[in-house]
Design goal:
- Chains A, B, C, D: Pfam families: Arginosuc_syn_C, Arginosuc_synth.
- Chains A, B, C, D: One of its GO terms (molecular function) is ATP binding.
- 4 copies of one chain form a homotetramer.
- Chain A is α/β, with parallel strands linked by helices.
- The first copy, chain A, is about 40% helix and about 20% strand.
- Chain A has 3 domains: about 190 residues, HUPs (Rossmann fold), CATH 3.40.50; about 140 residues, Argininosuccinate synthetase, chain A, domain 2 (Alpha-Beta Complex); about 35 residues, no CATH class.
- In chain A, strand 11 and strand 12 form a beta hairpin.
- In chain A, helix 2 crosses helix 8.
- In chain A, about 60% of the residues are buried.
């Protein structure tokens, strides 16, 4: 390890510590909790002589931010930044995930991993602005998150030094094991949280380790917080009309009560509310990990799941099938890059550009029925649709010839549509 | 067109006609029905002077086969073959689809397209056995199915001639249009069926054209036949344990009542029964077509949907993540080849071999809860799991070093597992 | 076939006929020659009652254009357009092929297939300008070119009708066979050309059929026209410095004599001259075909081969390796699309956009030695190089840690370079 | 770092040291030489208290093995293993590279990287046989090779500990810098070698660092050792007939003098001799590296280059074009895996299986002319050829219809060929 905090501490330094649920998922169960371990790290860094700037991102998690601010100051931070990055998260990260229809290993909407670059970007902004020489994170040497976090830090501020207490023997030898950590927490008045690791943000909530960790176990009934227990879901569907432009939702209308949401953050939060009530977007999977082996986790992504399906349908309705195949390959790559922490890499920038390009004509209104864990597509319309009623309809016997098998008909329709678009 | 039936008819020929729901999906709404149009074709071919061998595949559809046999003979077939290909369909076609996790355009389990090579193989066997020089099909010049069907015919029996009445002016000029066809049917005592195109087999049922054709319309309430209306689904989940070997289900146990099914066809039918009751596997999508443009269809695939999810989880639990990525690319190709009718091509044989190879260690038992349109994974266990409790667990702070980021840990686990497998 | 020329001819129509070496490659050996068969077609179309506008593209082939004009008028064309599309061909088609490093089946620089959309675009412009209702081409029903040509025609002018005499029984029944065609030619004073099919343009020359057709045969010694017989190549190398901007050559300097060429067409022709003298770019391959099976052809692409190598080196020097891998997949797709005639398709437009995007930083000067069939790279420099002398150099033992295996170093270098570029 | 050699040395251990040109390419220029740095490491490890088993692979490099044995013993090895792995290298590694047509970044035949798993496998065999607890290598912390080497060691013998002196501060602080190393070498009588890094094996020779390191520089004239200076190449071509079975060469016949070679190692060495004389297979490239950035190297791979071209042609002649496209994607992956050191990974095992499967019908005889840096294909024949003279030939106007564009003709030919093969 490049840096021994003990020696580094001799020079007076500003230090950004990271404090948010979203980046300490692999930590020390069964008492893994952001507040606990981040607080311990904060205290420990202070003991090593660092000047600490605490940073906490509000990325949509349910959290008492003022309590967190007070605790940070109490435990020794010189300064505390609590930054609301929710809107950036939706517009710059979630929207691209929706456009790409990215799934990790066929099932997982990447809810945790999309937050990494969003949270860290803001942290590195503060790091540069405040001239901090070190940044710290609370992930362990075992997990994926250390790599994701450090890749981003070094990409954005190459000269920074990362301090990772859980990879530092002086720290982990002192605090490892349940009793040691509890002891340390008690001594310093740090509250003891829930018995499993939880990661929440606007896009999703996940639970890992502790009880759900063994894949033979079923999830405990009280675990769900972002979606409702399916047994308690209402019996009537919600009917929503979602309008897309360039592959991104721009308007959500509740068909029954006429409610309309048109800005990114608001419509996303509204979809979370509607879909959460119906337990939409709940999955329980074994996930392949980046560095280590497999891990089991329960994931809930209500709004993301509705948009995933609604976008698929709009795409099928408006995107050429061959463009779609090429884009599908790029989306697999995108999912992998997000998962492994390479958002700020040249390849990810390239892939994001290409995916966005593929969405230019993904435009339309789709009606969905949201009822008890399921999203049904009810109907579709689009001014840019490749769905040309005449040719597909089975009602007309016309002069199609077998030569159409080569694709001539598809190209004719495409160029016909292009000329209509140009004419607009 | 290669063949003018009028002249061909002068030589006495044996003729196989195709008669099954599963291959005439694009036909002539609003009166599209297999029995109707196949009957018309049979009669018309007889009028052209052909000797007709009728063929009907039993591939799991609900149909009165004896009625069909009687009608075929009544309308002029010299001989009728009604062949039950259900078991071949499950073992040689559906199992590979499950192993590959193939989805067409992210959503569609390929239920219709998997039947094509299965049905046609048997037909071509009869064609060769009976020395028929011609085969006929009832698809039109507009749709995908003509290409799928003809590709397979010519692949398997290169010297055969295909007669496609709906591409033959003498036929379609006489029968096109609702009134003409109705008239012709009435004259010959052919019954008039339901107003939309329906395609049923063991794997799925789909509805196309007629009312559901316009994507702005919602499906009519009475449309569901393979799954139950969600409003009527029971309130208690069924808990099933599904055991996989080499990526294929070999045993299904109902955990509550202890029912066990262990042969391919029986366990698949049992899953259809359980999942259908809960309305699992219902989708309503706009599909990209091969030759023409987009079309809208409602699809139901109850057993296939359960197995898709259960297999995904077993795969995640036992398959190396990098092998999976490569296999994922092959599966996209496989889905495309099935969709476009290239099952019997060299590339599809190659891809099927590779996918089967990738499944050698996909083995384990997965518990699923089937409740109201949703499949939940409850738990997983496998003797071949890459899920090694120690390394993933967050409970242990051990000597993982950052060098593991290169993949050394993954390879260690893999070779460790291999040595255990070899030792068995 | 949609159109019977005999009946179409009853209405007075303007007709564009195609007349260029570049699109009639599969024709009638052993007397396959553009002038011969195009002349026959022209005469035959006139006999069917069409008004004919002849069109000949100058795309860099050696041809007596005035002689061609005279012959066209003599054989009955109402009007003759001879259009020089060389510059468009280099800038809009060849440059993209260079940027993509596209090879068909690992070896073939796509010289013939790049011309198809270029030639046909101009023809369709004339077709629209002159209000012609029909276009004609001289490819047969057997080859790839019919599909390539017709795909483009229908893409660009959907309502046009294509007349393909070699797919029209009235034509080919009259003229098929050596004697018939010779007879017809003699009767109408059409000259008899060389005994094999040859396709020449700025990018390459290919020979097919006739003697070289059997893959067991070796090419006859006198066959080379674009490159020199290697036995006669000079003994001293030419040293060229080629400068790239955005992946495209913008300047070629002959290091020995100081000659400089800076415009696209001129520098490409100069490279053809230098490389042709040294027999660079000569290949003799079995090519997989689109519709039919394999065919053997000899290909020469002097300038293209130099640029292929020089661009590869500049790319390796300036393009991130992960971007390159993604782009490589897109290039395989691009090569396939060019080969199969889908230049004007939505997927090709998308792929071309993405490839061009990947080239934004491919900039630098590369020195190459051109000597006797081989291009050697001598050296490389670039302001946008990712080749950072310090990190790669083996001279320095520095503080690289094993964590670099995760890719942190690569990202640091990339963002460092980006900041330098932004600063420019 | 896991292991401090100083403490480890307290227990008496057997130690395998690695001593071969092929794995120390990034080392300490300008005095980088295997003998030098391996000798220094050997001496240094002995000083740390290890018992040393020296290992040197004979993988086709020109080297005085007896001199190496003497030196190893002189510098303190307890035992020396000099293992000839040439035949395994050809049959188990090079042949697969030929089958896959693998190029790294479009140009590089992977000559260096193919040796890694071959050399290390044998080393790990000895390690296990002798019960050694440590293995050592002489690559630095900066380069790609450390990862490649360590991945393989840990894959094959998970419990082994790797000692990497160039990543160990105690070692590199003492020996870094030209003067220190020279001093240490002189003190111990270690000979001083050539001024650049050279890596030789049967497949290729490469030069890196020192003079050729700066990409602006041209290679010094005396650098070539595996191929002849092109200026001195003979003026007459060698004509070889190469016979392939399952994508692998099984017989090489010199057409002029009748010489025949039929075993893998002998025919490969013979091709090296013939091609080397003509300077075939010489490239000079900037290579993207795995961990660090770009590096420049000169590569020569005479036999590999001939086989690459001959195999491409046999493949084009006998392999279906769509199988080829899928296999091409797998080959890109294979090249990446070889390059990054993942030969012994599950994904590489899977990819190798699939590639070998694709080669089952790649069989035939190809004649090549080898003259002055160029391989010309002269002709091809194969009993398994898809080149069916009738359909491709332009001499026959037959009944091909446009429907062939769908691929029916291709499938007919394939199944026709399959039935012929089955009949054999």
């Amino acid at each position: 390890p490049a840096l021994s905090p003990a020696t580094a501490a001799r020079t007076r330094v500003a230090h950004c510590t990271v404090k948010t649920d979203s980046r300490r998922q692999e930590l020390m169960p069964p008492i893994s909790d952001a507040i606990l371990d981040t607080s311990c790290i904060l205290l420990w860094l202070k003991e090593q002589g660092y000047d600490i700037i605490a940073y906490l991102a509000n990325i949509g998690q349910k959290e008492d931010f003022e309590e967190a601010r007070k605790n940070s100051l109490k435990f020794g931070a010189k300064k505390v930044f609590i930054e609301d990055v929710s809107r950036e998260f939706v517009e710059e990260f979630i929207w691209l995930a929706i456009q790409s229809s990215a799934l990790y290993e066929d099932r997982y909407l990447l809810g945790t991993y999309l937050t990494r670059p969003c949270i860290t970007c803001k942290q590195m902004e503060i790091t540069q602005w405040k001239g901090a020489k070190y940044v710290s994170h609370s992930t362990t040497g075992k997990g994926n998150n250390q790599v994701r976090f450090e890749l981003i830090c070094y990409s954005l501020v190459p000269q920074v030094k990362v301090i990772a207490p859980w990879k530092t023997p002086e720290f982990y030898n002192q605090l490892k094991g349940y009793n040691n950590l509890m002891e340390y927490a008690k001594q310093h008045g740090i509250p003891i949280p829930s018995p499993w690791s939880m990661d929440e943000n606007l896009m999703h909530i996940s639970y890992q380790a502790g009880i759900p960790e063994n894949p033979k176990n079923q999830a405990p009934p009280g675990l769900y917080t972002k979606t409702q227990d399916p047994a308690k879901a209402p019996n009537t569907p919600d009917i929503l009309q979602i309008e897309f432009k360039k592959g991104v939702p721009v308007k959500v209308t509740n068909v029954k009560d006429g409610t309309i949401h048109q800005t990114s953050l608001e419509l996303f939060m509204y979809l979370n509310e509607v879909a959460g009530k119906q337990d939409v977007g709940h999955i329980d999977i074994v996930e392949n990990c980046f560095i280590e082996m497999k891990s089991r986790g329960i994931q809930q992504a209500p709004a993301g799941t509705i948009l995933y399906h609604a976008h698929l349908d709009t795409k099928a309705f408006t995107m050429d099938r061959e463009v779609r195949k090429i884009k599908q390959g790029l989306s697999l790559k995108f999912a992998e890059l997000v998962y492994t922490g390479f958002w700020h890499s040249p390849e990810c920038e390239f892939v994001r550009h290409c995916i966005a390009k593929s969405q230019e004509q993904v435009e339309g209104k789709v009606q969905v029925s949201v009822l008890e864990v399921q999203v049904y597509i009810l109907g579709q319309e689009s001014p840019l649709s490749l769905y040309n009623e005449e040719p597909v309809s089975m009602n007309v016997q016309d002069d199609y010839e077998s030569v159409d098998a080569t694709g001539i008909l598809r190209l004719k329709e495409y160029h016909h549509l292009q000329s209509k678009i140009t004419a607009r």
